[in-house]
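User: My collaborator sent over this chain with a note saying "see what the structure looks like." That's all I know about it. Can you take a look?
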Amino acid sequence: MWPLTQSFNFEGYQIAFDSMGEGDPMVLVHGTPFSSYVWRKIAPLLAEKHRVYAFDLLGYGQSEKPIGADVSLGVQNKVLGAFLHHTGIKTPNVIAHDFGGATALRAHLLDGVEYRKLLLVDPVAIRPWGSPFVQHVRTYEAAFAGVPNYIQEAILRAYVRGAIRRKMTEEELAPYIAPWMDTPGQAAFYQQIAQMDQRYTDEIEQ
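Assistant: Without extra context I'll predict from the sequence alone. Here is the result:
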């Protein structure tokens, strides 16, 4: 439903991306537990005036989900910088949501990545953040990573629905949870939660 047809290598891992439209470059950065799929209706509208780029963060969506690797906010800003370098994009317009907001801020404030314009949507930027579920998974990651599929599906449905304003049908919800349902995806889901750490936003808060 939202195939990303291109990829590039980031420190040995494949990052999936795609683009559409013509004009000034615009980069869309998703949050968690989502992927670039969240932009599927927005991207075509933006592509009427822009060259729109969407990619999946390391450990998310159609990008590689390496178990045991750093997929935290501490590395995603470097993924964004590497993506811009790979595509040759300079000073893009950026729309960033949730963890993507923190990623875009870290890339700018810590790595000197410049944007023409930056729009932040509900960014994770200032402590405190992280739900009680996140705090629980950080303590018991291994136990969650091995739950049966039917429990995993129930957790994902509740978790994703908790981050969405409107009600969604089961059919609409399915693509959001699909990346986290196979064995690698399940482990990757809890890994990225376990690596959530407020020190990564503390570094840029001031």
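A starting point for your reply to your collaborator: The first strand starts at residue 6 and ends at 10.
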